[in-house]
């Protein structure tokens, strides 16, 4: 069974984490669930975008060993310029050290939307082809001169590291992971269970 740890933090984008959570949680193979999905956070509760209160399953220091870690996005600024979401967490050494530590042992490291900024600051994206929300792609490129930022791509697979574009693209990335690990038939069955119908740009990665 794959252990999947999804990071949560204040002002996280809801669909960024809930979409992939649903994909992994409903996937079945021969009546069994191949993914154990749980959320982790530095603090509890977490207040996501638009005020949703979420109770993470574990804290950063006490969760099971993870085969897959996922960093969602959620970035904004207050009127006075105070950073929120990933704009804040990309400078949080507790979060960055958690990423670096699990980067050494996890089979896959995933990001959704501006979660790529956290991975960038953790130093794991240099030399890779990555994506993020189109509106901040230029900022990610400035942060990562040694990487190629491709905002036109729904997701990018670099082997251990997989990044996705904005918000709903995390669902497509998670389905790609299911396909890669368990086969396209399992990914297709998961889409049917979710009644999810991706567009041509999304489905192409699941063939």
TrEMBL record:
Domain of life per record: Bacteria
GO-annotated biological processes: regulation of DNA-templated transcription
Domain DJ-1/PfpI residues, every copy: 3-179
Transmembrane segments: none
Pfam families (alphabetical): DJ-1_PfpI (PF01965)
SUPFAM superfamilies: Class I glutamine amidotransferase-like
PANTHER family with a match to the protein in the record: ARAC-FAMILY TRANSCRIPTIONAL REGULATOR, DJ-1_PFPI DOMAIN-CONTAINING PROTEIN
Protein name listed in UniProt: DJ-1/PfpI family protein
């Amino acid at each position: 069974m794959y252990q999947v740890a999804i990071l949560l933090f204040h002002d996280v984008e809801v669909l960024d984490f809930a979409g992939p959570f649903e994909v992994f949680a409903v996937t079945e193979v021969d009546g069994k669930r191949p993914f154990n999905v749980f959320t982790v956070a530095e603090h509890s509760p977490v207040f996501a975008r638009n005020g949703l209160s979420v109770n993470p399953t574990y804290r950063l220091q006490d969760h099971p060993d993870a085969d897959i870690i996922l960093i969602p996005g959620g970035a904004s600024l207050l009127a006075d310029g105070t950073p929120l979401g990933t704009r804040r967490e990309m400078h949080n050494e507790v979060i960055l050290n958690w990423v670096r530590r699990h980067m050494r042992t996890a089979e896959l490291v995933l990001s959704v939307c501006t979660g790529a900024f956290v991975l960038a600051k953790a130093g794991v994206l240099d030399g890779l082809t990555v994506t993020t929300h189109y509106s901040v792609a230029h900022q990610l490129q400035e942060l990562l001169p040694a990487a190629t930022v491709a905002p036109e791509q729904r997701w990018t697979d670099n082997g251990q590291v997989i990044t996705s574009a904005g918000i709903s693209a995390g669902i497509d990335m998670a389905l790609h992971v299911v396909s890669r690990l368990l086969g396209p038939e399992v990914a297709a069955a998961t889409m049917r269970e979710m009644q999810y119908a991706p567009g041509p740009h999304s489905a192409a990665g699941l063939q």
